[in-house]
Amino acid sequence: MPKTEEAERLLEEGAAGSGWPVQQPSTSPNYLFCCPWIIFVPIVGVVFFVVVAIGLWLILNLAWVVGLIVGVPVSFALVYFWFWRCCPGYWPTDLYEKVIYMVHMLMTINSPVPNAGPEFMPVSGLRPREQLQKGLLDYALFLQVPYGSSDEFELSSETAIEQSLTFLPQSEHLETFGPDENPVEFVMNQLSSIYPPIYQEWSDKLSDTALVRFCLHGLGAHRLGVEMRDGKKLFVVKTNALSGLPVREGFERYGGDMYFDKDWKPVMIIDAGQGPLRQDGIQEMVTTKPGDAGWERAKFRFRSSVFTLVTLVDHLYDIHLQKSNLFVTAMREQMSSDHPVRRFMTPFMYRTITVNDNAFHNLLTKNGMAPRCFAFTENGFGLAMAAGPSLLLDGTEVPADAGGPILFRADYADYLKSKGIDTVYWRQVSQLFQLYLRFVLAYLECYYPKKEDFANDPEMLAVVRQYFYQLETAGPNTVSQKVDFTMPQSSGKIDEKYMFYAMFLAEIMFWVTAGHEQAGAVEVYAQDASWCAFRWVPGATVGTKQSATATALLMSFTSQPMPKLLDDDWTHLFPTPPANSGKNPTAAFQKFQEELRVMADECDAYNAASSSRPFPENFPMYVNNPRILEVSVSL
Ligand SMILES: [Fe+2]
Q1: 29 pLDDT exceeds 80?
Q2: How much distance in Å is there from the Cα of 296 to the middle of ligand 1?
Q3: pLDDT in the model for residue 32
Q4: Looking at the DSSP assignment, which residues form a beta bridge with residue 208?
Q5: Mean predicted confidence (pLDDT) in 195-223
């Protein structure tokens, strides 16, 4: 059709019109809508008044009855909790912490210690592959957590009572410890009934030597880095990333980067959190060196900031809500209950949905336990959580031109070694990862005589694709040049895909066992507010009493034991291998246990010989010892 004809047709169509016509305001509008119902207003008004008055009278009387029935026990409970402020418990804190303690204690005090046998993990208790009901986390994180009701082995539980406590008000009690007051005794008087046993020995906590141990063999071991300053290579553990986050009135901001020379002599702490919080781009840095007047204070601030960073980012955000959560969700949603890999990974995900639901609803929710525990304002807490992916040091931070993101522990240990970080922590991490990998490979051989059968397994691909799609720290396009999970049928050579999948499983096993132990089993630190605290008043070198109680209470949630990695037996979960495999998964499991035992003996021997080794290797290393590890995450 010529253009002119088309233009004419469009003009005619427009002139014909479609849609409701435009209307101008009326020149004589109805202003008050008085007619005709105005005459009924008095009669209906009186009837309405009588009905409302009778209703109010009934509600008032009912309130009296309910008040008498409910009010008396509630009053008793409030007075009972109020007396906790007195000797011998001395709880200078809110009702919230007291009720949380009471609920947790009653729920766990007589709960059985689980093992990995058929009594606690029966095959009949596995649930079919299904979409799980989930909730979206607060704090601008795009992470979803399955509800506890979807857990397996009849572990389904809803934490309705604890969830409903977030409405309780929050108040600050800034009272702190005097020089002769023992903060360890203080919290243990309160929480001995639920506090987990402590296997780490720290006879010296506050000296400079203890600070070296803290960074090399303790809570900072997985965050150790190197940096060139003034032409010298220094070891460093950093926390200044937290220093710009606002805290509540009455508390200090976090911060402190601790530097050591090549011989592990403390050099300085550079602290971006001591000066005022400025918005003009010029952040005051306070440098403190050994022997300076503020040295002990700077050390306390640094240790406490490491404790905060590891707890919030490495433990709660990464291991609970990212890695273990995304894996168990993908496994349950994408893998059949009789799939050999689902059966293999089931013990490592035991109770994980319940535990993470607890973290989701009680800890990392608005007005929950974690926002109350730390000094951050609500905005500061949200910013800290949202910054989680960029604050992690787990290999995903390695840039592409340096081979990153690095996903697997053995590769990351090699990378760190090439940077000059060759510590017993990372040597043991690499050893444990490779031990796990050998178990995975031996198990897979039993079910997949041909590698392509596993490399092309659609359910395994679905699990891995969903996991990396939802992982906030390494998207599916970045994880590997060889295996692209965004493709409908992922590309890559059979051997490479097979090994990638196997290492992925070994990596998850590491995070829920030793990875969790390093970041989450921090009972020894949480017990002493003069060593590590979550919040403290300006100038102090000890946390507040309220903070000491809340921190120890948070850590008491780890008291719920999980099945042991060593000497438990979960071979009943392994399905019967195909006839042509010729391999026995029980034999692979026994070999795995033997290797764990050998490594545990080596770790024990290493610790027994600590004092005979030269500084700085003269300390024990606990968290990678298979003898103390549990098979799945606890809170
Ligand atoms: Fe945990």
Answers
A1: no
A2: 30
A3: 72
A4: none
A5: 96
CA 453 to ligand 1 centroid distance, Å: 35
In angstroms and rounded to an integer, the radius of gyration of the C-alpha atoms of the chain is 30
Span from the CA of 411 to the centroid of ligand 1 (angstroms): 25
d(CA 625, CA 635): 19
pLDDT at 158 > cutoff 60? no
Q: What is the pLDDT of residues 405-451, one digit of tens each?
A: 899 999 999 999 999 999 999 999 999 999 999 999 999 999 999 99
Task: Please report the sign of the dihedral spanned by the C-alpha atoms of residue 33, residue 38, residue 42, residue 45.
Answer: negative
Residue 145 to residue 325: CA distance in whole angstroms: 7
Q: How far is the CA of 19 from the centre of ligand 1 (A)?
A: 61
Q: Which residues contact 209 (CB under 8 A, 6 or more apart)?
A: 615
Superfamily of domain 95-176+317-612: Lipoxygenase-1; Domain 5 (1.20.245.10)
Is residue 181 within 8 A of residue 528, CB to CB? The reply is no
C-alpha 243 – ligand 1 centre gap (Å): 25
Joined together, the tokens standing for residue 549 give: 């109680």
pLDDT of residue 486: 58
Q: How many angstroms does the Cα of residue 551 sit away from the middle of ligand 1? A: 14
pTM for the model stands at 0.89
Q: How far is the CA of 404 from the centre of ligand 1 (A)?
A: 27
**Separation in Å, CA 237 to CA 27, 211, 255, 259, 269:** 77, 11, 11, 7, 10
Mean pLDDT throughout 193-209? 94
Q: 356 alpha carbon to ligand 1 midpoint, in Å?
A: 9
CB atoms near residue 550 (< 10 Å) = 26
Q: Tell me which residue of 376, 362, 385 sits closest to 312, measured CA to CA.
A: 385
- Distance (angstroms) between ligand 1 centre and the Cα of 355 equals 8
What residues contact 534, with CB distance under 8 A and at least 6 apart? Answer: 304, 307, 308, 311, 373, 374, 375, 543, 547, 550, 551
Instruction: Using alpha carbons, select from 456, 312, 292 the residue that is nearest to residue 371.
Output: 312
The residue assigned the tokens 């949480």 is 526
The pLDDT of residue 573 is: 98
The pair of structure tokens assigned to 163 is: 């969830």
